[in-house]
Amino acid sequence: LANRVACVTGASSGLGRRAAVALAAAGAQVVGVARRKEELEGLCSEIGSSAASVVANIADRDAIEAIAEEIALPFGSPDIIVHAAGLNTRQAADDVTDEGWDQTLAINLSAPFFLSKAFVPAMKAKGWGRIVNFASLQTTRAFPGGIAYGATKAGVGQLTRAMAEAWS
Question: How many angstroms separate the CA atoms of 11 and 135, rounded?
Fold first, then answer.
């Protein structure tokens, strides 16, 4: 992936961090995006000069354009976007709150679409780009306490197909 720029959301831990490390090991310059500054600093220390970070809340739709601009500053607009950020409130259906539902929807489903939408024009101009959306077993199977998470991950499955149809 030499000469490619990757953006990884949720890069401060878990699968997002692993994806960022793997992309860097494959030669990409990586911009990790998450809310936790110290963990992102650790990621950048681990990867070295081919990594940068953006501390941001991708659930804030009003900030997406500014976040996208900040992501593009270190290495240019990304060629690869990995949407690994996710939220599972683990609330039983009878206990789901408006806030929990809205946050889960914003992080798991809305952010991947709107952040990708911000970068697609540059990908089209380059004639190359990749968008990777992380789904879940709950895309097709229900789990206790996962009604909001499962609904958003099922949405991610369809979002991925629709993005491919629209932008490939």
Answer: 16
Global pTM exceeds 0.90: yes
Determine the pLDDT at residue 18: 98
Instruction: Report the C-alpha gap between 39 and 10 in whole angstroms.
Output: 10
Give which of 107, 128, 109 is closest to 119, Cα–Cα.
Answer: 128
Catalytic residue, chosen from 31, 110, 149, 154, is 149
149 in active site: yes
Residue 53 above 90 pLDDT? Answer: yes
CA distances from residue 133 to 49, 109, 163 in whole angstroms, order as listed: 26, 9, 10
Q: Give the per-residue pLDDT at 142.
A: 82
Residue 67: closest CA among 28, 27, 5, 114: 114
